[in-house]
């Protein structure tokens, strides 16, 4: 692979991150709400009376967070902070930092979504490959309608159904939360099993809905491999149908699936927002939902920037790995 191409792609990656980061800075500020004033008013209301000196307190906190400066100065400070990976303090959870809150919630989202995404990808891709191969047993095709029906449902709708059946009605699994309330988090087998039990319902909702999408994509690509020269050549050699399917058809149909998988994995950092909120799962999605509700500029910016960064890195690595996945792809000049 040519070094100048790698540098070019890396430059494009930095440009995309900068443009997306710029949009990420200005979008929360399009709203005319004042997050400092709203937070102080909420605290005063919860206390049962309005505090005196509200204007002075708002001005003091605006100066603390740099919100009293002109917008262009805030933007330059924002870029300087990003270059040092300093995501500032959370407005609604001060004095906690944005980095601290993201790092606390990140393992929950990565643990839930990485496992569910990889399982859904593996099951859906294999199922789609069998559906698209003409020599597959007929009974496999009867599984397609229920899989498509589940794929038409949003994650949270199926999650609510599973919550009612498995938790509320059958009492087999806990209804919400990442672990049993009152449990002190620790690195031991009992706590790990507690987390797994609490993750089953949200994980099932994500896996069952996602399988249909992966299956449809793989089925379409498998159909396109039928009649190709490499498939006909393999049949002419007298290879077994299983060998032709797995080593020739599936291998050539996987490239679009791998591309989609890389993009989906890049979204893991943001979490499954609605699913996490419904199940009170302590992941990044719940943190992002609360940050948007409370107009926490810095927390929203930090989470969105992490999503931008992971997506950029995923596409950059994927672009470099294409020649390894498919030898027909080359970046050398002819």
What does this structure look like?
The protein has 334 residues and is mostly helical. It folds into 2 domains: 3-83, no CATH class; 98-325, MetI-like fold, CATH 1.10.3720.10. The protein contains 13 helices and no strands. Helix 2 crosses helix 3, helix 6 (144-151) crosses helix 8 (189-225) and helix 7 (155-169) crosses helix 8. The protein is globular. The protein starts with a helix and ends in a 9-residue tail after the last helix. The relative contact order is 0.14. The mean pLDDT is 80.
Mean pLDDT: 80
Overall strand count:
0
- The Rg value, from CA coordinates, equals 25 Å
Distance between the termini: 13 Å
Compact summary:
The chain is mainly alpha-helical and 334 residues long.
Features:
single chain, 334 residues, mainly alpha, MetI-like fold, 2 domains, 72% helix, 0% strand, globular
Write the layout of secondary structure elements.
Elements: H1 3-30, H2 35-46, H3 54-65, H4 71-83, H5 98-132, H6 144-151, H7 155-169, H8 189-225, H9 229-236, H10 241-266, H11 273-278, H12 284-293, H13 297-325
């Amino acid at each position: 692979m040519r070094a100048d191409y790698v540098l070019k792609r890396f430059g494009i990656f930095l440009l995309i991150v900068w443009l997306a980061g710029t949009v990420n800075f200005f979008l929360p500020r399009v709203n005319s709400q004042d997050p400092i004033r709203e937070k102080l008013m909420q605290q005063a209301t919860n206390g049962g009376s309005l505090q005196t000196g509200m204007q002075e307190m708002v001005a003091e906190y605006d100066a603390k967070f740099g919100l009293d400066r002109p917008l262009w100065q805030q933007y330059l400070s924002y870029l300087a902070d990003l270059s040092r990976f300093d995501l500032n303090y959370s407005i609604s959870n001060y004095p906690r930092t944005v980095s601290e809150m993201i790092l606390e919630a990140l393992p929950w989202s990565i643990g839930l979504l990485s496992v569910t995404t990889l399982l859904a990808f593996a099951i859906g891709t294999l199922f789609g490959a069998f559906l698209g191969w003409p020599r597959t047993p007929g009974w496999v095709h009867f599984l397609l309608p229920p899989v498509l029906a589940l794929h038409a449902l949003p994650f949270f709708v199926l999650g609510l159904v599973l919550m009612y059946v498995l938790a509320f009605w059958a009492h087999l699994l806990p209804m919400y939360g990442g672990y049993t309330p009152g449990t002190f988090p620790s690195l031991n087998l009992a706590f790990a099993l507690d987390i797994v039990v609490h993750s089953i319902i949200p994980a099932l909702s994500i896996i069952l809905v996602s399988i249909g999408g992966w299956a449809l994509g793989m089925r379409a690509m498998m159909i396109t491999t039928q009649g190709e020269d490499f498939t006909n050549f393999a049949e002419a050699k007298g290879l077994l149908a299983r060998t032709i399917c797995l080593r020739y058809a599936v291998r050539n149909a996987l490239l679009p699936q791998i591309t989609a998988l890389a993009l989906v994995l890049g979204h893991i950092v943001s979490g499954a927002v609605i699913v996490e909120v419904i199940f009170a799962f302590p992941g990044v999605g719940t943190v992002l939902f609360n940050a948007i509700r409370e107009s926490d500029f810095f927390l929203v910016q930090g989470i969105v920037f992490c999503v931008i960064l992971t997506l950029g890195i995923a596409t950059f690595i994927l672009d470099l790995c294409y020649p390894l996945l498919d030898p027909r792809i080359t970046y050398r000049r002819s």
